[in-house]
Amino acid sequence: MFITTILTTFVLVKTLDKYILKSFLVPFLATFFIILFVLVMQTLWLAFDDFAGKGISLIFILKFLWYTTLLVAPQALPIGILLSSIMTLGSLSENYEFAAAKSAGISLQRMVRPLVFFAIFMSAVNFMFLNYVYPYAILKQINLKMNIKKKQPALALVPGSFNTEIPNYQIKFDEKYGEEDNLLKNVLIYDLSAKRGNNKIISAKKGELVSEEGSRYMTLILKNGHFFEHHEKNNSSYKQRQKMPASYADFDEYTINIDISSFAKDDLDDLNYTRNFNMLSLKQLKDTLPTIKLNYDEYVKARAKNLFLNVNAKDLYKYPDSLINSKLSLNLLDNFDLNQKRNIVNTAISKVDRTLNNIKSNKDSFKHKRKVLNLYDIEFYNRVAFSLSCLLLFFIGAPLGSIIRKGGMGLPMILAISIYVLYFFTNTFGRNLAEESSVTALLGSWMAIILMLPLALILTTRATKDKGLFDINGFFKKLIDKFKNLLPKKEKTT
After folding, report:
1. Of 102, 291, 341, 355, which sits with the fewest C-beta atoms within 10 Å of its C-beta?
2. Where in the cell is it found (predicted)?
3. How much is the pLDDT for 459?
4. Are residues 123 and 16 in the same domain?
């Protein structure tokens, strides 16, 4: 009899595990592929203007979509687990299936155990994906986008900064507009084709890019502009160059034919960018970080040494008290006459201004080097932290589903989106703080886990004790009891 009971319980539990896994996998696969499709379409919509009507073949657009799918899959996986866990456990609670299992002596922890193992397995899958597939996908996608821009040089030009992709020219403009994004506003061009520096400068209020497929030239038509060229002879000295004449003129229309034949030699599958921080695996990041940190430390030491030499700190000496002249005033300037004071103050102000200007001129370079180091550090820690999001969001979604006791796509969808937005916001916020050196890279990468882990623990505890999400009655009861304890008790009269 005892053996029969054990066998019956074993078969029942095994059947229950299969049933719960099946109930979870069906909505998980459905939600995962729906979310994946939405994320891919969002990325395609943002990049649509770069591909539509640019002569890019369908096979390369499909490659771009494939690489995009690999990139967004690690984001879709946690959302799918969160939503399906709320839906599955909400549906089981709504249909009183959990109550039936509890009446048979099976606890909530035992019922969701197969789902816990599945969440751990998916976290491991997400980690492998982030460590190997994600770097490969971003490597291929970025190189594909850059090679497509080379095939269409007009795509490579971005407003607001000097564009150096086109050989022998530096082009800057304020805005790109028009149906084909080939019209430019407030154009400034440095013509470097003569290999003599920025001796030829052209500015115009408007510009138009004209390029035909297969042509080795791109035509830039400028309107309402100004032309300046500083003439100089080969091997001329600086004083001779100062005496050389310069030519300048205003124009209504000016045409420049730019040779872009070098772009046609590049294949769309070429890999020219391979060392970006998000293109490396954890092992490669670990090997690269020491070199970047060493270069950064050497740069900081060099700037500190330069500052030390500029302020002449090495000329300061500490004299023993026995050598101090008692006739000298402790205020050093009082020991000099007016002209000497003026010279000392002017020299000091000049050195301070020079030092401040030196610091300001190196400020952007310092921030850039620190930011690059932070990006590598953040990527290293975030690979592990983000892979654990599957497990974290499961321990939020599963107890939440059993508490709300509501299945389907309505309320679970709203809760899942709200929770993931909160997780994504805190993760992005932490990474941005770490990027700007406000917090360490380790803390910034794990901030979302640290902030949302208490929520997972609270929900899991309340679901295990079969309590609601908010025990309003219990809360007010405690307040009333505390208030009663503060009041003086009346003595009973006989």
Report:
1. 291
2. Cell membrane
3. 86
4. yes
